[in-house]
Amino acid sequence: MSFNLTLCEYAAYAMYYVHKDATIDEIAFVIRRYLGRDLILPDRSQYRLFGKSVPTPEAWEKPYKLMIYLGPEQCANGQEIFPEWKHLMDECKMLYPNLGFVFIAHTHDYKKLESHLSYAHIFHPVIYDRHNAYRLDNRFPDNHAFHVCLLDETNTILFVGSPVKNPQMWEEYVNVMKYHSLPDCNSRTEAG
Prior knowledge:
Elements: E1 2-4, H1 5-18, H2 24-34, E2 47-49, E3 52-53, E4 64-70, H3 72-76, H4 78-95, E5 99-105, H5 110-119, E6 126-128, H6 133-138, E7 148-151, E8 157-160, H7 167-180, E9 189-191
């Protein structure tokens, strides 16, 4: 695995700047544990769209992926956050076509999740993680703000944090994608 040291330093600084509800210890833990590393990814065969199995979506083929883990609390309160995700997804279709969205949900009530998604007009496949393997395998902290990761084409974590209801966080995601896509970016990599 390799990562861009300068990009990692920038992302670390930006995470300290935009994670207003997290403690410095939480942020430091996430930076040490996740930036520049690869995630253990879920089984793509578990994609569902309103309860029915569907093929792997094109999001996996995009140079950047926003991996969004939704735990029981977010799934139960989806009427609050899913419209925000829908707005961001619609904005990205035009402005950032190289960014795909991958939703991973662990809940006890997938029917309620589907209802919230439908209400928000999100007709996007979701990985049903019935055993919570994704969160457990990657040992995500309890703080929901750290359950969203930006991955590059090799599935290396470039940035961590939820941009929903946090415009500063979204600005940093955009900055990281712009910086990462610079032509000379790969010439500044170091082995990790």
